[in-house]
Queue: 4 jobs
Job 1
Amino acid sequence: MSKRLLLISQRAEDKAFAAEVALEAGLDLLLAEDPIKGAELVDSQEPAVVFVDVTTEAQFVAFETALQEKVGLFSDKINLNAIHFLSSSDLTEVPFLIQSPIFGHFVFRNYGDVKVSGPHYGRIVKSSQAERAFDLTVLLKPGAKIQIVKLQSTSQKQEAVEAIKSYLEAAKFQTRMATSIANAVDELLMNAMFDAPIDEMGKTIYSQTPRSTVIALTGKHEVEMKVGFDGDYIAITAVDKFGSLDKVKLMKHIAKIYTDEEYKVKSSVAGAGLGLATVFHSGGSFYFVSESRTRTEVTVFFKRTDSYREFKDQFRFISTQFYF
Amino acid sequence: MLNVVKEQKGSALLVRLSGSVEESVNFDQLIGPPPPELIVSSKEIPRINSVGVKAWIKYFQSAQAKGTKLTFIECSTAIAEQINLISNFTCGGTVESIYVPFACTSCKSELVGLFKTADLKKLNLKLPELKCTKCGGKAVFDDIPEEYFGFLAR
């Protein structure tokens, strides 16, 4: 692969955003105005990263078809995990993207100031180009302080959540912002403690275990939390050593909303299946990195804003990186 | 941890909940068997996680099934968000009043104002400005109107 980022879009805001991303990620920017020209550039230039405007299903189908016809979806000329979908629609409105086998990254096009959102996402792109993307330090601006907390027991979760909330309030986040972020941490830690553990057959160990159960987090069950703040963005990572993340299930949970249909209480599982969708809805971005049976790191990002309205409506993305 | 203060208000039981709603909550123990008429104040609930939401819906759904008349008053911003996110969060109950978030345009302080839902409907998403209690500046509604008041259109 070359050191190029190919943008397939006619939108000026995409061009401005991609230019900032490319600059931060150390990539040269290539432009294509339509999927056919884009597929030709994939064939001739073999870009390391592709950004594509897929606001409508028709655009997505045109891209997928052009790619299939020119190079084939599973060609060596393109890394499927390096395709980033740019959309003006929220995740819940684009099921065709989530269900696609080439889904890896979703960028919700409310860029705000591209001089901030561009470099921020550029760091994600840069990280995803590394051999292994397990490193919070490269996801924030240089100089960001990172704190690492090892949790010894599930009973320490609430304490960790409250400590994050206090830390954020001290860092001048509004109380509601701090509460939203603390909730995100709560969900991430709960997932790492109770949903990630699997047995040798790959079956979840604690799916029916009440989330108030006290479990020692030792050995393979160790859970770590990393917290970093670079002045613009706060990033919090939950780390587990199971590497059991399933992309299909994950996307199903994040994209599920209950604003119209009823939420049904399932007694067969202890979890609620609501956490990740709520976090995304409240303004959080996700970076999921998982190496099968080895390690999963889930990072959530929030930008500190002047108002809660801006906070909730901030630039958002979901990025996934899976290693097998 | 969630706490409760109970008051008898005529034929209704008023429960004032305070604290975070999370995995340790047990509404059956906290409130007890649902009475024929239950009024829930969530003014002092700053946070609710996903397992707390599940426990909430489980308890109030069971109350609804037993014929309890449910009324939610003084809903905190955390609870108002859930009312908007989950269509059956109030389990057939009536939302009488909610806290609405405001932010001061001068000193950036956060404020909340209590509004009756009937009045909010009349305002048609045009909230009045409040006076900041800290600096006297102008405080404006601080959320996305279509989302924060989405439940009013149901």
Note: The interface with chain B takes residues 158, 174-176, 179, 182-183, 186-187, 190, 210-212, 257-263, 265, 270-275, 278, 281-282, 306-309, 312-313 of chain A (CB under 8 Å).
Job 2
Amino acid sequence: MATTTATITINSTDLLTDELSLTSTATLTTAGTSTGVTQTSGLARKTTSAAAAAAIQANVLYRAGDYTTDKANKVYIKNTSTTAAEFFTVHIDQEEIGRLYAGDWMFMPWNATSGTKRVGTVTIAATWAAGDTWEFDGITMTAANSTVADIAAQIDALNYPNWITTYVATEATIIFTERYASSASYAALVTADGTLNTNGNGTADVSSAAVGSKSESDITIRPSVHTAMTYETLLIHE
Amino acid sequence: MATTTAAVTLTSDLLSDNMSVSASTTCMKAGTTADGLDGMEYGYLDLVTGDEYDLIGATPTASKASKLYLKNHSTDETYFIAITQNSQAIGKLYGGDWMFIPADFHDAAGDIAITANGGTNKICYALFHEGTTLVAS
């Protein structure tokens, strides 16, 4: 079993009339057990910058949809800046947690409460011909023949930037599931989201199974200045 | 000025090579290099299951560089405290876990609230801040 420990030491000789010295070590385990956590993002380091102050954008550190909800995940973030006035503002979803000023670090548990993803089923039907195309999510499938099951298999074999597919061999339907729950997920997937170009009367109708809901705890950080600022981060998760 | 340092060390053998991350910061007032945080609240208490409680009773100055340390001293690994801020779920501290976060209490709703689960949890907390406003009785 992997053993991961987190130790904090807080010291001050002059904050109180007596010396303050606090040390605590936690062995990081999976939720409700004594079994050590086994997964990590690894330590990452990134420098942010923007063309102007008005162009500053928040950076997504971790998307809740990538992790299991309600586990004993832990997040470490450090602002490596040495300019005292520079800070990163840390948010979970829309809630501002706090500001990490130059040199500051934080270590917190993270629920990773994700939303639900849109799901839709595409049904390949009627008369298709080799060379017919169907475009979705910026990706174009060109039919190799007129067999609907083969066309469905071709659609499944492509890589979509925002969707994953599920397909059962010999069937004419493909299930599309959104990679991330997001604020864009309020509209159901519909037939018009695809672009069909067929010489016959082939169809690629979409039926929606789930509208989806927005992710509720993505972690983002926003730099206070547009000039270069660097942060380091580490996620330990189940 | 008061000088308070907070250091963390993370070590693990869950990768193919050993991992060790260390950081230390001197807790300064917002945007300064010469003036350390000079206020502190500290508590150690039993937290019974059921209701949600605001952890910080007073209102530290908003949008500053306050730091909150919170530890669950429960020895039962199934016990945990759920932490929320302004109804936003942050995470759960299981028995033995701790956290250290910047807490800027951006408005009156930005209090950090905790709820015990599993049984009565023993918690310890320390808030380092640069000013506070007591709530009128």
Note: Residues 92 and 219 of chain A are 5 Å apart (CA to CA).
Job 3
Amino acid sequence: MTLLESRARTGGMARINPVAKLGASGLIALPLIFTLDMVSAAVALALECVLFVFAGVGWREFWVRTWPVWLAAPLTGVTIALYGQSGGTVYAEWLLVRISEGSLLLAGATMLRVLAIALPSVVLFITVDPTDLADGLAQTWRLPARFVLGALAGLRMVGLFIDDWHALQLARRARGVADRGRVRRFLGMAFALLVLSIRRGAKLSTAMEARGLGSPVRRTWARPARFGTAEWMLLLIGAAISAAAIAAAVWAGTWNFILGPS
Amino acid sequence: MNTSTSVSATRTAALAGGFRWRVVDIVVASVLGVACGFLFLAWNVGYLGPKALLEPLLPGVQGLLDGPWLIAGVLGGLVIRKAGAAIFVETVAAVVSALAGAQWGGFLTIEAGLVQGLGAELIFLVFAYRLWTLPVAILAGAGAAIAGGINNMLLWFVGSDAAFTTVYMICTTVSGAVLAGLLGWVLARGLAATGALDRFGAGREVRTRV
Amino acid sequence: MTVDTRPATVEARGWGWRHSSRIAWALRDVSLRIEAGERVLLLGASGAGKSTLLHGLAGVLGGAEEGEAEGRLLIDGTPATAARGRVGLVLQDPDSQVILARVGDDVAFGCENLGVPQEEIWQRVDDALDAVGLDVPLDRATKALSGGQKQRLALAGSLAMRPGLLLLDEPTANLDPEGVVEVRDSVERMLQRQRSTLIVVEHRLDVWLPLIDRVVVIGEGGVIADGSPDRVLEVEGERLAEAGVWVPGHPPQHPAAPASAPGESLVSARGLAVARARGTMVADGIDVDVRAGSVLAITGPNGVGKSTLGLTLAGLLPPAAGQVTASEGLGGGAGAHPIRWSSRQLLTRIGTVFQEPEHQLLAKTVREELEIGPRSLGLPDAEITARADELLQRLRLDRLARANPYTLSGGEKRRLTVAAALATRPQVLVLDEPTFGQDARTWQELVAMLAALRDEEGAALVAVTHDLDVVAALHAERFTMGSGS
């Protein structure tokens, strides 16, 4: 999990500025948010699959990381199918449920849309190294350094959480409370972990201040974040995918602007 | 004796709350954000079961499951007590959830976090960042829920009808008020009692002076 | 290669600090002057305010909302709060000072904050790592470093800022003996290269005295003693030893030797192999016996599996191979294998005290903490209260009965976790590094208590420890792990 690893991945995508990746996934998602129809979602999804080949993510890893998306998409589709706006022939109805031709179409479109928006984001994000992301946010987007670095430090404490968890479990067994009440014990351990982490966080912030964070001097960067050809290329690809999706929907006449009159 | 008046003066100054974030505010807010991010990750998977059970009963009642995703902003505001705390903690939690591959896609997960955090933040702002009591916490939870609910309606439930929308918005607001607001307040008090928040106003007001 | 840093002068004029959550002043009336390039050891009883002084010098105590200051604290004539960047601070906990995920990035952090030009940063990083003798590649993951390495990393991170004043706040307190030597050697090596002013706070003096020119003792009323090490220790040595400092020549008292020979074997291991997580075996072929009325000390170098063995004997971790068997007297109706006992059955048979007390705190008040075990056993309320009262008194925690366990000091938390384990009167007690990071006074108390448990109650004790003084003081049978155990 990238969250816990400090090395950036290998592969074409790995060394691109994470801010560009963020931007690309935003560019792909944005137009798809504004419309709900099958054609745009399908076109976007197809083009994205081409992109995935170059992402440097293994076949197995792709499925391991994206299974929640594959699970959530059909479930969202079912919700819309059951309760969505109806139109055309009605196939079944009871209480407040109404399955109709219209709602089924909408369900299909929603499923594809979820996949089209979520998949590229997941793929792009798993190749991101947190330290590089922080560098990118602070240097390229000029977010305040104290916040970005403080957040990064807090994020880093993740690795320590896991070592403590096992010790907390053993301690509960030793104290005689591990036989029953799993949920209560889980919550107790989670609370203890939170206390430990806040404590460590407070000590870490003292260490960071002692190393000069927050001083009025203008900060320099040991790892300059670049925004060059590769980054612009990625953004261009993102824009191209969304342009193609919009164009296809308009050409097929299925453009369905969600914020306007339906 | 002189100390008591100077002590109370320092205390009132401290309670008024500054707007500048200290480094410890940022780091602890991030720790809270990461912890809540984990909670979000667990709930991203955990909510699917109850959702499948609740949905067929009444459309929109799955809004009751929204609360856990809203607790980060409320908790952040109650602990850090500075402007922007709710937005920051909720966003960091969303970023963690996104980095680990949330099913709604990185960009939209973070956007949802921003909106939900904003909902809680506005409530804290209405009280001028001075009141941090239980009713305020409950309102903040409800505020986050309403903001998040509207966001969800626009993004994911766009094709739904009026019944669904009404039920959903009501359920999500209740969930936010109880699971995010009330629980968030209880959690903040529990943390303060352990002394972990001694560098914060939240900790100082709970612990008796020794 | 010599590095050009101007050592700083330090001056305190009647300085004091009060945390806003306290009524009493942490420190008051401190007046002293430290010349450029001096190496000072700061001593005092626990709670005397030594850490507060170092934090004040580093300018990290916080603003008006966190406390109140009086007097002046000057570094090279400027107030300490404005002198960030001139001061390097190394703290006690290795894990809480690691800021970034890669070694090189972490060392470069301070330079970035000071606005050092990018080309110069990496040169400074190399110099700093060289100065402390930390020979690891720049992209090594910081969480893969040992405790001693992490402390040296923190030292390098401070050195890269080229500070005139270096402050070390108990840098070796949380390290094993190997780590202590590593850090001390690093500091010595660094001092040979450059003349920084150095102020060290430490409990263990023998390690640091050779590097020090001057000793300052602070306590009630400010500076109590100030002068050359020999002179100050001669005058204040005894008082300091009573306050808990490990003064060479004033060792803590050892309890008497056991009067009777060890009794029957309560827990035995035969051909035991232990693993931390399933599949990663750390040691095998272990044969030990834990006998009533005696102490078994498990010793060995870092990472060899001492804690893992202790936890396996305690019935908390499953054996990877071989067996851990409990005697008839110990097991009774629960069977002969501790790992198969339920949590409740463990309570009256084998108690465990973990290395990190905070992992074991379960309740909201100290009294409740002591009552958890007996309550789980289903004892009547009167009995529960009686046991809690007895333990509170015996371990001098009665004053704190209603405090939240997390708010106790380090030594108090340690006593609390031992008391909590004793609340259910187990026949065997396993302790993981019981004297780790303790000052001399707590050490003495703990060792005396363990000896009393061994003699008066005939309990069997297992102590996993680096500390060979404990082994000697308790007349423990020693089981060494490591190459060829």
Note: The mean pLDDT of chain C is 89.
Job 4
Amino acid sequence: MSKGTPTIDMTPMVDLAFLLVTFFMLTATAIPDEPVAVDTPSSISQIKIPENNVLTITIGKDSRVFFNVDGQYTRATLLGKMGELYGIQFTPEETHTFAIMSSIGVPIGGLKQFLDMKPEQRKELQPQLPGIPVDSAHNELADWVLQARLANRQVRIAIKGDRDAEYPVVKKVINTMIDRKVNRFNLITGLEGGPAEK
Amino acid sequence: MAEIQGGGDDKKKKGGKVRSKKSSTRIDMTPMVDLAFLLLTFFVMTTTLNKPQTMEITMPEKPKPDDPEPPKVNERDVVTIVLGENDKVYWYSGITDPKIEVTDFSANGIRKVLQQKKAELPKLVVLIKPSDKSKYKNMVDILDEMNISVIQRYAMVDITPTDEELIKDSQL
């Protein structure tokens, strides 16, 4: 054995590392940009949420309600329909911004202005967004849900509530759904070990 | 670790004889490995491995005016659960002159009550009344308890002033 530096053949390790990198790259779906940190309650349910065609209604701890639907085409169509309904004209740029954006948490009146902002500005504003109005007198969530269902008929509705969200807000959201004849929806929950664990 | 050996000057010294180098053709892989592991770490961290679970829930349709009357339920088969503040669970059976009791979401709490009632009453109907002070978590937990105890007949109803008074009076 010579005195030189001891060498290790790194090839198998590199092979493995790249294999893993490839695997994770292909399976990765980036964590979606959440408008508000939501700590979901746990349940014993084993049903997984579908991959796509999901309409998510997020209810934050502070009773703010956010709306999100996946699919760029759906979102673009949805914005057009909403604009028609409320008499707001959205430019193609705004539609594009909307299509690639995540959750919506502004009343429709402020949406145009919100879309015109720079991404950094939007991010900065995130903690102070008012959320979507769900009051019975002024219920924009109902329109969002209805129009989203018209834009994509296969959409499934999921409610993602924070465990400490106040029940009255949840009730308002659920009643909004029932009023629009949406009787079946999913509640997003975390994993729990089952009855033995508690 | 092997290095690419710089030996360009050797040729001139040795009389122009071209000597093919026998030294190893190994490349220093360290930077590549560094990069590979960096990427690996990044992707491991950003992947959401387990997708969240969902609980499917089907709410009854709003009754239309011309709908036939829903079938009556014997009040003895009814157990009412009121979700209070601070994760408290109030429950009583029957409708007239109920005896209210308080319990919690632990395994010996509401689950025991439900399982006992289920054994007693084959036609058990559970009314869930979340109060305005309850949290979303309480609602999910009680729906979960229904699944755990395999109770098929339950309904989510709005809380009535009578229930609120009952809780107040009981001082539990």
Note: The first strand of chain A starts at residue 42 and ends at 43.
